[in-house]
Amino acid sequence: MTEKPKFAMYWAASCGGCEIAVLNIHEKILDVDANFDVVFWPVAMDAKYKDVEAMEDGSILLTLFNGGIRNDENEHIAKLLRKKSKILVAFGSCANEGCIPGLANLSDSREIVHTAFNTISTDNPHEIYPMTSYDVPEGEIHIPKILPVLKTLDQVVDVDYYMPGCPPESHQIAAVIDLVVDVLHGKAELPPKGTVIGAGNSTVCDECKRTRNVKTIKSFQRIWGVAPDPSLCLLEQGIPCNGPATRSGCNARCPTAGAQCIGCYGPAEGVADYGARLISAFASVIDAKDPQEIDRILDGLVDPTGQFYRFNLAGSLLKAAVPAWKAESTHEKEKA
Amino acid sequence: MTDSFEPTIIGFTCNWCSYRAADLAGTARIKYPPNVRLIRLMCSGRLDPTFVFKALANGADGVIITGCHPGECHYIEQNYKALRRFHLMKRTLQGLGLEPGRVKLIWASAAEGAKFASEITAFVEEIRALGPLHWGKNGSAPSPTVEAVQEKVEVPA
Ligand code: SF4
Ligand code: SF4
Which residues of chain B neighbour A325 with C-beta distances below 8 Å? Predict the structure, then answer.
């Protein structure tokens, strides 16, 4: 019997939801097992980094990489898996655009460590922090070093395909697995490098069944404060829905269920900056000409930066906020 | 260091008013500092916030947006749209830690060459006082593969 092609999946800075989403394809997971030899998948099987290091370059056919690049361990494994894999897929929002872990790019990374180890949730009167290296009789041991700015996978290594979503919808994962299996059996061809797979090419609005009229917004509403009309476009009702800038692929799940789209499928095709596109979209429908009136309406959008960059900050044009860049600059100086 | 700091400023102008105001300032030989690189749009309403973010991400220290006075837009009311975008963009940029003074909106009609020149002069000084921005470049070299990633092209909605 010929050897099965090899499959790997890895999680860097992520929540584990992408892994669950893969398992959520139910019996389709058996197709993965039937067609692939799973060689590395920390969440599902025991494997050591040194096993991967020992593999021949390019010997893994398909690697699904989820998670952003938060520390030097993530960076090392991203580079390692790039070298060992023929096809590297940025899998899920974190690897594509930073996602929720990327929101840490709003802050100085030292402040993040401080919050984690020395605030109300942790009683730490002596301000004891983890050390990144420590001498023990057996030698020096290390823990990963946090990077000042979280990066997306393609900011660190070359990526073949992008699969968005937080997490990617299971039916989309199943479709991608079908495609790969067809390719293996010579029944289909791989899409061109750089293609976004497992998602649509238009916007969530395009898939949304809600009725749209001419939008004019006199005030923004928070979703928990109103009972939205079940069939009318949410944005039209003043509920900040990110549908206009978000990539289709989820069948407009959230607006269908009565909640606004928060943008987990990332920027739609042709959108260079997700937040900028939404600023245009929202500002266009605000019904005011007077600067004070405009400001009054905008006060209803409580956290515009969070609203527009919840998933996309690390992948946006500006990538991180000033405090994170400042920390990065000190970090670089210390290294030099 | 800031003594010799010459700010790099990107200015967006409207074809029908502020671009002509800049032209008028030129023909009238009114001097203003050369720090501003002007980009002509058909209307301030064409100003996509993406342009501003791209300017800041690529080394601009400040961005000035100029358009026709309220009520005088060639395309009826697109300058109001520019005004609303500007307000929302500014709030978003403040959330990212940008000083509010680095992005400015002014109105200048085609007849206001002198006003245009003095606004630019004032803005250059304001940015000079704020110092260099160097967004994302505070000593950090871009990772080598970043160049290899194809630059995304914005397709208007
Ligand atoms: S803005 Fe939201 S609710 Fe309105 S059409 Fe788009 S996705 Fe649907
Ligand atoms: S509607 Fe928006 S937030 Fe909800 S699943 Fe779809 S892309 Fe994600």
Answer: 135-136, 138, 140
